[in-house]
Design goal:
This protein is mainly β. It is built from two helices and 29 strands. The strands form ten sheets. Strands 11-18-17-14-15 form a five-stranded mixed β-sheet, with no helix packed on it.
Length: about 375
């Protein structure tokens, strides 16, 4: 697995085992080259053309040659050097306590000599750790390159997502190249020869490699429904990403907010009434002090649609229905004392800079549809 900084970079990956010198990544036995092009920026997993068998305790290296247009080709961990102080905090965190940028201590916790090396056309290897300068303002950590290994005799599933779309094909493989036996929904085992089609509902797949019937691998699948990848909630005071673990999202706004903006990321679309929204559309919903609920339909081609409800409340706001009174008398009676104390409560809170949705005409015997208090 490695990170791509420059789209279109060409790579050549080689694995070396039995290194004669840990300071020379290519001083061992070469196990062939895997070549290709990285089309997109970001982390990507590349499967070697031929598997390399490594025993426990072996010293090995992954050597990658990158070439392409001029630019910063080698991706590394990085941070401003602040000597233990956090670099900054995200504006997406309402409480201002969500660190987003790495710091020196985080990198140095796993960064050391003899881990990452680089070289240019002079063929001289340099240890990245030797570039560390305590007095510098910028820290470069380990190179973003990682080897992913699997146990021999393991069966690999092409899809490890627990929820998948009907029609998805599940391929099985193993690094050993041996026959694989599989079973669907605890049925009889048979030799694997082609991908398994998921048809919907719950489906379990069990598999083992020929000669290892005691080492069975399982994967359980269920039907995927339309969903959001993320939902950014914001207004003029703050912004944050909503918790999408349930279909009901609770949003709490500052008491002086009169709107909320939602920005979804989805492979499908979001519908509210007659309005249809796509990824990165800004959905501005006007709100007042009383609680509001907005129900959206999330849809995606080939998947079952689902409802998403956004409940909007304001900080320190309590809703009182008609006939409910506040009393500081301790009697619980709807009498003059309760009315007087309640008026005093409203006045005191209002003078302190807080608001109520209704301040006029309040008294015993008068009908109020809805009262919201802020404190």
């Amino acid at each position: 697995m490695m990170n791509c900084n420059i789209p279109g970079d060409q790579y050549e990956i080689n694995v070396f085992t039995g290194l004669q010198s840990p300071q020379l990544p290519d001083s061992g036995e070469s196990h062939g080259t895997t070549s290709g092009v990285m089309e997109n920026i970001g982390y990507q997993t590349i499967t070697l053309d031929e598997p390399v068998h490594i025993n426990a305790g072996d010293t090995f290296s992954i050597v990658v040659k990158l070439s392409g247009e001029k630019g910063f080709h080698i991706p590394c961990e990085h941070a401003n050097i602040t000597h233990g102080e956090p670099v900054g905090y995200s504006g997406f965190a309402y409480d201002g306590q969500f660190p987003t940028l790495n710091n020196e201590n985080n990198i140095l916790a796993t960064f050391g000599r003899g881990q990452s090396f680089f070289r240019t056309e002079d063929n001289i290897w340099s240890d990245v750790y030797d570039c560390y300068d305590y007095d510098n303002s910028y820290l470069t950590g380990n190179i973003c390159l990682k080897a992913l290994t699997v146990n021999e005799g393991a069966v690999h599933f092409s899809n490890y997502d627990s929820a998948i779309a009907p029609g998805t094909e599940i391929a099985l493989s193993c690094a050993d190249g041996k026959d694989i036996y599989y079973s669907v929904n605890d049925g009889e085992y048979s030799v694997y020869s082609q991908p398994i089609a998921y048809t919907g509902g719950e489906m379990s797949v069990s598999a083992y490699i020929d000669g290892c019937p005691e080492q069975v691998y399982h994967q359980l699948y269920s039907e995927k429904t339309a969903s959001l990848s993320s939902l950014l909630v914001s207004n003029n005071n703050y912004s944050y990403y909503a918790d999408l673990s349930t279909d009901i999202i609770d949003v709490t706004l500052p008491v002086n907010s009169d709107y909320v903006t939602l920005c979804p990321i989805t492979q499908g679309q979001l519908t509210y009434g007659d309005e249809v929204y796509s990824s990165y559309d800004k959905i501005e919903m006007p709100v007042d002090l009383k609680p509001e609920s907005f129900t959206f339909i999330v849809s995606e081609e080939g998947l079952t649609s689902r409802e998403l409800t956004v409940n909007v409340n304001h900080e320190f706001t309590t809703s009182l229905s008609c006939g409910t009174w506040l009393s500081e008398c301790g009697t619980g009676r709807d009498d003059f004392c309760g009315e007087r104390r309640f008026r005093t409560f409203l006045a005191r809170r209002h003078q302190g800079g807080y608001r109520t949705s209704r301040r006029q005409g309040f008294g015993i015997g008068q009908q109020q549809d809805h009262i919201s208090l802020g404190w």
